[in-house]
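Entry 12.
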Amino acid sequence: MKKVLLILVVGLFLVGCSCSNNTAKGAVEDFLDQYRNLSASVIEDMDNVIEKEENLNEEQKDQYRDILRKQYTDLTYEIISEEYNENIAIVETKITVYNLGKVQKEANNYLNEHSEEFYDESNNYDITKFLDYKLDLMQKNTETINYTINFNVEKNEDGIWQVSDLSQEDLEKIHGIYNENE
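Predicted 3D structure (tokens):
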């Protein structure tokens, strides 16, 4: 699930924003507001990614979809600074998201210490039981984490500021799964 979330953002870069991006700051705000407002492109990308999750049953996919919707709509941000150099800018932004990375790590640790709880009647590991457990923890989580992202923003030939491709690290921050110890 962790790496699949990263794919969600790719569609946002391709679509671009039809909002007024007269400043680099405005471009970053528009970009993050697409998540907060669950824009059509965010929903479409999210649904496409979730449908490709082979280990999730339909009920788990719906639960995962709800978790991601909550993650995105509850995302908050604060623009810290803007640094312009002609048609390129860096917009330092503090975001606050649910700490899903910590929850996933705790679930995996629990699995390692209590694997017998996730066995079926035949004494075989049942991934469905574990995913139910993990998704339940993710859904109940209210702990947030702050990250800083330096968005690279460029002015295109039409004079519109657009957020450049984000690093994998920054994508993980938006999804609340970044672990600086990895």
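Annotation: Residues 3-18 have pLDDT under 50 and may be disordered. The CA atoms of residues 28 and 87 lie 15 Å apart.
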